């Protein structure tokens, strides 16, 4: 599975961005898709995940502001980010794995990351 994340950029606090992750290779719909982020000097952090059956889970820090979704026909996963805060600044990664977890180690495939910068 190859993953390509895009959609990052510079946005003011309170603004919105939509990240996209294009998947290719093995059947996309058989994997759990996740979004993680890593801020400078910090460990990689779970953001949201989407199961093959459509179940979602969002980290508490983004719940109510971010929404993960997918389009199996297009092999795409999205992360809609609203009401962005400066602390959301990070490199965002999409990932694919077999388990519905928040552990980065449980994800086998990773995209290259896209930088989101939120100014105050």
What is the succession of H and E elements? Answer: EEEEEEEEEEE
Overall mean pLDDT stands at 95
Q: How far is the first residue's CA from the last residue's CA?
A: 37 Å
Poorly predicted runs are none
Strand content: over 45%
Biggest sheet details? 7 strands, mixed
Shape assignment: globular
Helical coverage, percent range:
under 10%
Structural class: mainly beta
How much is the radius of gyration in Å?
A: 13 Å
Description of the structure:
The protein is mainly β. It is 0% helix and 51% strand. It is built from no helices and eleven strands. It has strands spanning 2-6, 9-12, 17-24, 32-38, 45-50, 56-58, 66-71, 76-81, 90-97, 109-110, 114-119. Strands 2, 4, 5, 6, 9, 10 and 11 form a seven-stranded mixed beta sheet that branches.
Give the topology:
Elements: E1 2-6, E2 9-12, E3 17-24, E4 32-38, E5 45-50, E6 56-58, E7 66-71, E8 76-81, E9 90-97, E10 109-110, E11 114-119
Describe this protein with a few key phrases:
mainly beta; four-stranded antiparallel β-sheet; globular
């Amino acid at each position: 599975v190859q993953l390509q994340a895009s959609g990052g950029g510079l946005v003011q606090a309170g603004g919105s961005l939509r990240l996209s992750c294009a998947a290719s290779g093995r059947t996309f719909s058989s994997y759990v898709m996740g979004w993680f982020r890593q801020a400078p000097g910090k460990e990689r952090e779970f953001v949201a995940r989407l199961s093959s059956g459509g179940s979602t889970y969002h980290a508490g820090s983004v719940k109510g502001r971010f929404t993960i979704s997918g389009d199996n026909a297009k092999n795409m996963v999205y992360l809609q980010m609203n009401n962005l805060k400066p602390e959301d600044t990070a490199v965002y990664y999409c990932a694919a794995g077999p388990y519905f977890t928040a552990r980065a180690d449980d994800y086998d495939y990773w995209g290259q990351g896209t930088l989101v910068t939120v100014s105050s």
